[in-house]
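@channel sequence for tomorrow's demo:
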Amino acid sequence: MKITLILLTAILCVGCAATHNESISVVQTNRGVEISSMNSVLFDTGQYDLKPSASELLKSIANIINTKSKANVVVEGHTDIVGSASYNQDLSEMRALMVKKALVEYGVPKGRISAVGYGATRPKFNNLTDMGRTYNRRTDIILLGEKKENIDNIFLKLINKFLGS
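structure tokens (generated this afternoon):
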């Protein structure tokens, strides 16, 4: 059973031209702490290169991993059902690898982190609705075996910093 700890909606200015609603959530699962972000936070549509605006968030997550946790980490890429299964699988794998690469660049030891793409095979929401597809396009960073209370305060600071509060 998943308990939602934090669900934020952030309004970010992208290129100061438009605002977009973006979501980041943290849940305690039986696997550990799962930090989940809608792919629009990290990537442009259909792309696997990280947005420049993703670097601050990923630096902060890397800092949490390095200073507050000894857990191994798995990065999971997910897509919706739009497009071929092969395309979605490849895209999810590349996105997971790019997040892993960034976390390693920000100091997470390579031996502590793995990446896997699941394409559209693990939806959390109904892929038959626009909203469901939006939420299924996500990247999860799971701190395996970690307890949320070990990172709660530092994660709240990260979110406040990310939101500019």
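heads up for whoever presents: DSSP finds five helices and six strands in the chain.
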